[in-house]
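Reference record:
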Amino acid sequence: MHRNAPLTPEGRRRLVLRVTERKRPIGHVAAEAGIARQTLSKWVGRYCREGESGLIDRRSRPHASPNQTPASTVARIEHLRREHKLSPRLIVRELAGEGREVALATVHRWLVRLGISRLRDLDVTGNTQRRVRRIHPREPGHMLHVDVKKIGAIPEGGGWRIHGRGSKQDRHARRQKVGYRYLHTAVDGYTRLAYTEVLPDEQGRTAAAFLARARAFLAAHGIHTIQRVITDNGPCYRSRAFTQAVPVNAEHRRTRPHRPQTNGKVERYQRILTAEFAYARAWNSETERNQYLHRWNIHYNYHRAHTAIGNQPPASTTPHRVTNLQMQN
């Protein structure tokens, strides 16, 4: 039954009998029941043709859909998407060349129904011309992946995660306008050793100073030479300050636009960082979360197992481990 239906099939039958057996006017019976006269007239007609079965709810789907996309066209849309990875616009153009006029919205709707509206829904590792290319560093320091993750700052006393959305404390926290913080990260592609800092911005000088501290962190773990520094095309990485901070004998390589998988190691690390550190718990202030970041760096590098390096922590694969009591805490 529809949740807004005023009567059940039994109630409809009683109203219909008042009209058919007692010969009462349809308008009067409908007014007593609080329904439209047209609705009761529809039930009376169905009862006369089909009996009590005509009073049962029916599906709203039409009996015929003359404008529905033909099955052959749907199959062609799926073929062009799966085999050639064409976008909806290119599929429309291809179908038009075959004499099939299909709207762009129709193609997109069918791709959603077929579950292939996004490229990641397609199998790119099967028997297609596309193949997954993986980047394998040869040694520690061969590739240093650098990136920035922007996260919302936490007001004093905590935000909505503690007090709930719309609460008095939440409204007060929003009025503080605490802004954002930026997690600058450098990951060695071979050892997966990671270094992260929370900084107030993502400007060129800030990124350059961070790169210098990240190199010092890696040097303390035996990685003294950096051959490549891989970043995206952010303004801070195109600045003169960052270019000068890159080691003299190192190559600064920027990824292609809209291709974050080229810098995938640090992108994956940032996903872990967000889930296990930034939003792992409800923080009372930004200072509390920043103080915990030092413990997170120790946990990730010295204790957390990494599947890509044989379920060992990243620090176990470095040229040597730092024998520092604070780091082994």
Q: What stands out?
A: The longest strand covers residues 144-152. The CA atoms of residues 74 and 291 lie 56 Å apart. The chain has twelve helices and five strands.
